[in-house]
């Protein structure tokens, strides 16, 4: 699968853009702040119906304009797929495949598998467990549609149960039968979520460790550890045992919405004991493993978007990474970098189709092709 062309109108800082790409490596170079990352984000929009960085559609419209449009033509299994995303202030977002509107945006998720590597990924290391759960959920949802449905229904049930707990707390009463109704909902949707996460990580972790060894240092032992209370007891027992605590807290204190994925290096938290280079290598390995896993499950090579990834990586790690992504194993790749000379030198001796675009405030022009 690859993106053949991209058309933008009033998206973020881009007034308009019409670009054609190769089924190989496509690079955007230019000064910081000119909009290189915005071009990657527009591609992400076409795969996930939303921005990687800002989920509020109205804030992705170019300043002083009333709408944005993103259109792209993808070659998927040797068939053209035309994807359209349009948003106008005051209206609902439109998302179309071959001129036909989607009834639910969730029906599109996974149709165009894509992996984004960004400096924003550091939140996976430094932020709370919710961010890491979203990563796991995002990967599984791209190949398992029932998982996404279960997740949406589970989150709704948690919200409803929390509202009930708060109301009962305010009224200083306990309604066991009403709580049980929502417990059954949590069990129905939460148990399959837990099982899917456990199964996914059993397959995913060895792939991740393999990639870290390729771009990092084999002596740096790294691990991903799935933390869940459901390892200890059945979900039903945990819910019953937590009822007194839930009543005091007035929210649901146990469940798959409390799971976490711990990042470790040499048995210690990556956040505290990993250098900046090790953390970046860890995150890149995580995303390359995501690529491999998606490719295996979907039978299609995902698009790989690499946004400003060279900072804080030494030359050896950069060279190893570029050698990896230049292999035909990875398919179409998009790269951004502020250093034009570095990009040209990195890909000078690599035998793959290449286009380098220079991004300027008012235009994006092709400067290198091979």
TrEMBL record:
GO cellular component terms, alphabetically, are: cytoplasm
A GO molecular function for this record?
A: single-stranded DNA binding
- Protein's name in the database: DNA replication and repair protein RecF
Query: The RecF/RecN/SMC N-terminal domain covers which part of the protein?
Result: 3-361
Q: Where does ATP bind?
A: 30-37
Where found in the cell? Cytoplasm
- Superkingdom of the source species: Bacteria
Enumerate the PANTHER family for this protein.
Answer: DNA REPLICATION AND REPAIR PROTEIN RECF (PTHR32182:SF0)
The processes (GO biological process) annotated in the record are: DNA replication; DNA synthesis involved in DNA repair; double-strand break repair; SOS response
Q: Which UniProt keywords apply?
A: ATP-binding, Cytoplasm, DNA damage, DNA repair, DNA replication, DNA-binding, Nucleotide-binding, SOS response
Q: Which NCBIfam families match?
A: recf
What family does this chain come from, according to its entry?
Answer: Belongs to the RecF family.
Q: What does this protein do?
A: The RecF protein is involved in DNA metabolism; it is required for DNA replication and normal SOS inducibility. RecF binds preferentially to single-stranded, linear DNA. It also seems to bind ATP.
Per the record, the gene is recF
């Amino acid at each position: 699968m690859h993106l053949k062309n991209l058309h933008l109108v009033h998206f973020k800082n881009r007034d308009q853009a019409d670009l054609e790409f190769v089924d190989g490596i496509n690079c955007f170079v230019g000064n910081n702040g000119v909009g290189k990352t915005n071009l990657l984000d527009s591609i992400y929009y076409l795969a996930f119906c939303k921005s990687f960085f800002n989920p509020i559609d109205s804030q992705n419209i170019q300043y002083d304009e009333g709408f944005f449009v993103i259109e792209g033509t993808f070659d998927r299994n040797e068939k053209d797929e035309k994807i359209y995303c349009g948003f106008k202030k005051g209206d609902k977002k439109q998302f179309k495949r071959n001129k036909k509107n989607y009834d639910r945006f969730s029906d599109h998720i996974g149709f165009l598998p894509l992996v984004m590597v960004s400096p924003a990924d550091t939140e996976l290391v430094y932020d709370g467990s919710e961010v890491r759960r979203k990563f796991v959920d995002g990967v599984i949802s791209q190949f398992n549609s029932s998982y996404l449905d279960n997740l949406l229904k589970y989150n709704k049930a948690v919200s409803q149960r929390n509202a009930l707990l708060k109301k009962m707390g305010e009224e200083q009463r306990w309604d066991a039968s009403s709580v049980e109704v929502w417990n059954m909902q949590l069990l129905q949707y939460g148990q399959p979520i837990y099982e899917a996460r456990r199964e996914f990580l059993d397959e995913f972790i060895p792939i991740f460790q393999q990639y870290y060894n390729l771009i990092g240092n084999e002596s740096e032992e790294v691990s991903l550890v799935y933390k869940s209370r459901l390892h200890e007891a059945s979900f039903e027992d945990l819910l019953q045992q937590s009822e007194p605590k839930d009543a005091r807290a007035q929210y649901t204190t146990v469940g798959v919405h409390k799971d976490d994925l711990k990042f470790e290096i040499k048995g210690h938290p990556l956040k505290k004991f990993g250098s900046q280079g090790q953390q970046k290598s860890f995150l890149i390995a995580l995303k390359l493993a995501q690529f491999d896993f998606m490719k295996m499950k979907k039978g299609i090579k995902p698009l790989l978007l690499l946004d400003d990834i060279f900072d804080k990586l030494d030359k050896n790690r950069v060279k190893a990474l570029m050698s990896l992504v230049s292999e035909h194993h990875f398919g179409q790749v998009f790269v951004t970098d502020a250093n034009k000379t570095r990009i040209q030198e990195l890909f000078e001796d690599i035998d793959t189709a290449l286009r380098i675009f220079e991004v300027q405030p008012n235009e994006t022009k092709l400067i290198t092709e091979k």
